């Protein structure tokens, strides 16, 4: 009796093993649900963050990637080549564009307001991310007799405090803004476009 039970148990165990092994093999014409990319087909992506703040990058294409690059550091990744929708967040701005990565690639986020036009990479492509994150240096001038709070809403949102009869220099995302400011006990608003070295002069509303 014990021998028969042992034989039945062994047969059931063998049958279960066959079923499990068969289930682990993809059926003909079906895709495999796990990553099957040959490491030899991957390419290196070097991301250099020259800013003093964290930088974030998303790549959405053949695969989906999310990268966080520490301030003033360089990070190295291996990705599947192909066409991606790239989104970068840096210098207080977020922007997206399409990019094709087909070989070893280097992407540089220069200091906010700067560029990396002289960077080169032997045997690969170089992307200057300042062409995507367009940061400009502007001056906000308080011509009133009180301290002023200024809110800029546009490509990004900024909040500044400028002391009475003073001016401050900032680096912000290039583009058109809705400006709202408080001074002399009142508030006002207007539209303004930020370009390199432009000035925003504000007085009592």
Q: In short, what is this structure?
A:
With 205 residues, the protein is mainly β. Helix content is 11%, strand content 50%.
Can you describe this structure?
This protein is mostly beta strands and 205 residues long. It folds into two domains: 39-131, Sandwich (Immunoglobulin-like), CATH 2.60.40; 135-202, Immunoglobulin-like, CATH 2.60.40.1120. Helices cover 11% and strands 50% of the residues. The strands form four sheets. The chain has a four-stranded mixed β-sheet with strand order 4-1-7-8, with no helix packed on it. The chain has a four-stranded antiparallel β-sheet with strand order 3-2-5-6, with no helix packed on it. A four-stranded antiparallel β-sheet has the order 11-10-13-14, with no helix packed on it. The chain is elongated. The termini are far apart.
Task: Summarize the SSE layout with pairings.
Elements (H helix, E strand, L loop, with lengths): L1 H22 L19 E7 L5 E6 L3 E6 L3 E7 L2 E9 L2 E9 L3 E5 L15 E4 L6 E8 L5 E6 L3 E6 L3 E8 L1 E9 L2 E9 L4 E4 L3
Parallel strand pairs: 1-7, 7-8, 9-15
Antiparallel strand pairs: 1-4, 2-3, 2-5, 5-6, 9-12, 10-11, 10-13, 13-14
């Amino acid at each position: 009796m014990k021998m028969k039970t042992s034989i039945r148990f062994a047969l059931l165990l063998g049958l279960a093993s066959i079923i499990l092994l068969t289930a682990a093999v993809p059926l003909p014409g079906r895709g495999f649900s796990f990553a099957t990319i040959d490491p030899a087909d991957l390419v290196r992506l070097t991301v250099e963050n020259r800013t003093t703040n964290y930088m974030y990058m998303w790549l959405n294409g053949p695969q989906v990637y999310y990268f966080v690059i520490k301030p003033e550091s360089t990070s190295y990744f291996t990705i599947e080549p192909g066409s991606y929708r790239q989104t970068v967040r840096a210098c207080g701005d977020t922007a997206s564009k399409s990019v094709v990565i087909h070989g070893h690639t280097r992407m540089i986020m220069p200091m906010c307001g700067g560029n990396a036009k002289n960077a080169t990479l032997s045997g690969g492509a170089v992307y200057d991310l300042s062409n995507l994150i367009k940061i400009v240096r502007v001056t906000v001038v308080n011509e009133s007799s009180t301290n002023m709070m200024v809110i800029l809403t546009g490509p990004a949102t900024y909040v500044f405090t400028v002391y009475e009869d003073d001016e401050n220099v900032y680096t912000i995302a290039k583009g058109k803004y809705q400006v709202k400011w408080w001074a002399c006990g009142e508030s006002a608003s207007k539209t303004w476009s930020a370009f390199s070295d432009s000035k925003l002069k504000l007085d009592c509303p």
